[in-house]
Amino acid sequence: MKKYLQTISIIVLICANSTLAQTLTFERYSVEQGLSQSTVHSILQDEKGFLWIGTQDGLNRYDGFQFKVYTNDRKDSTSLSDNLIRTMALDKKGNVWIGTNRGLNLLTIFKDKSSGKSAEGFYTYLSDSSDKSTISDDEIRSLYFD
After folding, report:
1. CA 77, 83, 84 angle in degrees (round to 5)?
2. Strand (E) or helix (H) holding 21
3. pLDDT digit string (tens) for 36-56?
4. pTM to 2 decimals?
5. What is the band of 26 on the pLDDT scale with cuts at 50, 70, 90?
6. Per-residue CA distances from 137 to 84, 96, 131 (Å)
7. Is 76 within 8 Å of 113 (Cβ atoms)?
8. Measuring CA to CA, which residue among 113, 104, 98 is closest to residue 137?
9. 95 in Cβ contact with 107 (< 8 Å)
10. Cα–Cα distance between 57 and 40 in angstroms, integer?
11. DSSP per-residue string spanning 40-88
């Protein structure tokens, strides 16, 4: 009886695995589909279902149809502090935090002064050796929430 149950268990596992393998499909996304760069350092899914993809050339938000790319613009204080995205994390409130080679960024929603509409931007935390309350280093390699 024990050998019979083992045989049935193995058959069930083989059938389950073959059924699962038949239903999985993978799609490859690259620069041709709108990704800013093909070297990916970090991937995160937020509470709204967006995929956030951190590359060597910017932050990419994928909504299931298209990419929106966020990069550093030295003239815009609400842009990312650096294009090299090292790590990302989601806090308990659902905020997206981004670690770069030049600071820690928090994705924020704010009111655009010129249009009055809501817009996305980033608040940046940088190291300042004269201020002990700032982050200790601008190169952020990993993020964890306690």
Report:
1. 135
2. helix 2-23
3. 998 999 999 999 999 999 999
4. 0.76
5. confident
6. 15, 20, 12
7. no
8. 104
9. yes
10. 9
11. EEEEEE-TTS-EEEEETTEEEEE-SS-EEEE---TT-TTS-S-S-EEEE
